[in-house]
Input
Amino acid sequence: MSNLGYACINMTLGKKKITTNRSMIKKTFLKEGIDRASELGLQNTRDLVEIINWNEQQGIKLFRITSNLFPWSSEYQLSSMPHFAPISNLLKGIGVLVSNYGQRITSHPGPFNVLVSPNEKVVLNSITDLSLHGEVFDLMGLSRTPYNVINIHCNGVYGDKVSAMDRFCRNFDRLPDSVKTRLTVENDDKASMYSVKDLMYIHKQIGIPIVFDYHHHKFCTGDLSEREALEMAMSTWPKGIKPVVHYSESAIGKMPQAHSDYIFDKINTYGYDLDIEVEAKMKELAVLTYLNKYGHN
Output
């Protein structure tokens, strides 16, 4: 049976001010520093418990946590936060909770993570950010496998796709094991970027799985059908770990790549067992509406 989940924000709980996205502008961080960042991180972590419990009550077993759990975390060590002790205890408890619930936790670091970049500063910043994701997952006690994915895009071609992917593979070797064991790469939504077929080049070199995005595939097919691309991506996943895929639809009246509020079509899994992250704007409401209409695939 395929599971459906959503990303980062729970709109229902948000009405009660339960959120994991508390942050601050740079000016505030420069003024109040790690003390304020730590306070916000503690509040975010507490509310992550609430979201996970809510998901369980609704039968939602898949959730992508925010990359902004700890504001400005690239500027300090997590262990330096004044509230690190209660935060680390909460994260450990969250790991136990999701294990008991049978939930799957994932992440999707932002587009400024560019392991294909020829700019060393960009690569170093990417390594720092990805390492933070790996550290948070370790603090939660999540498996060092792609069951708990840290998923990114290549985010650039720089005139030569193969050379760019070679840089990705070289820079992959510079990542800590907390990231390398969880890292996945996703197909893009522009024809000039990376299709599933392109990403097989990376998989064959370093073995990381490919996350198939249904919506992106419509704009960057690599001359593969949807089923062919899905099956190719699925072939990259380790035995015993259910593949993660992304699903969304085009918003009416906007750029075709823009995500719709809800999803309306029945997701074609072609009979496969998948964990499906719904990237619709209405988050958990889109998932619940879909399940009410179609049930689990």
User: Anything to note?
Assistant: The CA atoms of residues 29 and 37 lie 7 Å apart.
